[in-house]
Design brief:
Blueprint (H helix, E strand, L loop, with lengths): L27 H35 L3 H22 L1 H9 L5
């Protein structure tokens, strides 16, 4: 029986010296405007989803329909969570990447 010896070489991570810049691509300001508009549309959609879900929750509770009431509660939680993530998108990206997005 042959034995196999495996050698593992650990290379220290080296910084390649590349950093994000704000003037590297043409059209970057337009892309930032589009991303901001998407954030706005997302927040508006969250408000609409929250209102519809709250109405479903209220009507389901009023009519003793636990299925609709449960779906309404879930919809409210999902809409609120999505709004939280969308609203804090810049801060989340800035925290995990160290890049100043805004």
């Amino acid at each position: 029986m042959r034995s196999i010896i495996v050698h593992v070489v650990v290379v220290a991570s080296q910084d390649p010296g590349i950093t994000p810049n704000s003037n590297g691509l043409p059209g970057l300001p337009a892309l930032r405007q589009m991303a901001g508009a998407l954030l706005t549309f997302g927040l508006v959609a969250c408000v609409a989803a929250f209102a519809v879900s709250a109405a479903a929750w209220a009507l389901g509770s009023f009519n003793n329909n636990s299925h609709y009431a449960g779906k309404g509660k879930t919809g409210c939680l999902v809409a609120a969570g999505a709004a939280l993530l969308i609203g804090s998108a810049n801060a989340i990206i800035r925290f995990f990447s160290g890049i100043n997005v805004g």
